[in-house]
Amino acid sequence: MALYKTNGTASMKKIGNNTMKNKIYLSICSVVFFAIIFASLSFSEMEGGTMELTSSAFSDGAMIPGKYTCDGVDVSPPLNWRALPDGTKSLVLICDDPDAPVGTWVHWVYYDIPAGVEGLPENVETDEHPAQGGTQGINDFRRIGYGGPCPPSGTHRYYFKLYVLDTTLNLSPGATKKQVLKAMENHIIGQAQVMGKYRR
Predict the structure, then answer these.
(1) Given this model, what pLDDT does residue 49 score?
(2) Rounded to whole angstroms, how far apart are CA atoms 69 and 75?
(3) 115-132 confidence digits (pLDDT tens)
(4) Which of 113, 115, 119, 183 has a beta carbon 3.0–4.6 Å from 80's, enabling a disulfide?
(5) How much is the average pLDDT of 129-139?
């Protein structure tokens, strides 16, 4: 009878030890699993990150310097972008003013920008095919290329919008914003914007 009790106690101790080992093992596995997931996410963030569009001439929501408006030399501001998604074939840049009294006023239409281009310098020439590649459309001033802020009065917002496409549009020079937006349908795989303000 005593031997039975002793063996029973030994068996219970063995079961308890195994349970404790299993708990420790599961805890270690959980820590390793979450560490791998965290490292993977961190690596992905460092490698790709969030797509963004910026300008060294003004920060998002800030005032656009007069140089880039009709009150100055009216040249386009420098723009840079990063973290384009995989599968990028071309880029489209549109700048417009939703505060214009006649409705949204289009200041710049630029499409088929090559995927390898990482930004635009200041003063992109107002040619149909600028040096950076791609094709420029017509703005609401009825001119090819960039036309800067020129509000009749008050403070207006100017949105520079970058669209990433999985195709090239192959539109002729001088296309309108409406034509470009139509051609882009079902081909947008990413987008970003920066907004600047100007007051007269």
Answers:
(1) 73
(2) 7
(3) 999 999 999 999 999 999
(4) 119
(5) 98
Confidence check: pLDDT of 44 > 50: no
Secondary structure of the chain in HEC code, one letter for each residue = CHHHHHHHHHHHHHHHHHHHHHHHHHHHHHHHHHHHHHHHHHHHHHHCCCCEEECCCCCCCCECCHHHCCCCCCCCCCEEEECCCCCCCEEEEEEEECCCCCCCEEEEEEEEEECCCCEECCCCCCCCCCCCCCEECECCCCCECCCCCCCCCCEEEEEEEEEEECCCCCCCCCCCHHHHHHHHCCCEEEEEEEEEEEEC
Mean pLDDT of 8-21: 54
What are the phi and psi torsion angles at 64 (to 5°)? -80, 130
The answer to whether 112 and 126 have CB atoms below 8 angstroms apart is no
Cα–Cα distance measured from residue 190 to residue 85, given in angstroms and rounded to the nearest whole number: 7
**CA-atom Rg of the chain in angstroms:** 29
Phi and psi angles of residue 159, each rounded to the nearest 5 degrees, phi first = -100, 120
Tokens of 7: 């063996």
Neighbours of 137 (CB within 10 A): 24
Burial of 49 (0-12, 13-18, 19+ CB in 10 A): exposed
CA distance 89 to 116: 9
**Pairing assessment for the beta strands 90-97 and 135-136 based on DSSP bridges:** unpaired
Q: Which of 173, 179, 192, 57 is CA-nearest to residue 126? A: 173
Integer Cα distance of 137 and 143 in angstroms: 8
